[in-house]
Amino acid sequence: MLQLRGAFKFYSNNFVKTYVLNDINIDVEKGEFVTVMGPSGAGKSTMLYILGMLDTLNDGEYFYKEQPVHKFNEKQRTNLHRVEIGFVFQQYHLIDDLTVYENIELPMLYQKKSAKERKSRVCDLLDKFRIVGKKDLFPYQLSGGQQQLVGIARAIAGKPSLILADEPTGNLNSEQGTEIMELFSKLNKEGTTIIQVTHSEEKANYGNRIINLLDGRIV
Description:
α3 packs across α4 (115-128). By secondary structure, this protein is α/β, with parallel strands linked by helices. α6 (174-189) links the parallel β7 and β8. The protein is globular. The protein has a six-stranded mixed sheet, sandwiched between helices. The protein has a single domain, classed as Rossmann fold. Helices cover 36% and strands 27% of the residues.
């Protein structure tokens, strides 16, 4: 489904290059549930952002369903991301001036789903995540855990082919965290490819493969 080949990401400062990703090569097959682990600063989130087409490589190749993403311009990447990918951000990244309902609905607007289909899907997710009573609230009126639930609901609303999740349960209590991982497991069994970043061995065990990163390299 996707491949990184000779992938490098670095930042230059006074002619000194600091490598965040250093010669990364990975293959992820359709329907896999992959966990990325490693210490802080290992490059996990950066790799996820590149796979999500929200950042670009300095060198190397990225193929998504055989499409050369590394050759795409920003508009092409954005369009592919909106149709194919659901992203769960560690810091939520909800849109401040949209309600909970509108935040969850957003991916389906990009996909040009009908109003009826959007309403049905949002209502289903509000019920699933037990946040029906929060639907007209804005992000600043929610707790961190509630914002995380909205972010996860938004990520899966458009039924993406690929879900990328950066510490998806980090701001949830243990019960909510387990429920989310069970939901991801169910989505995966239904055919959705999932790549998650986590520090939790317990959460990692929901996947079928672990990629360990250290100092921007696979170990």
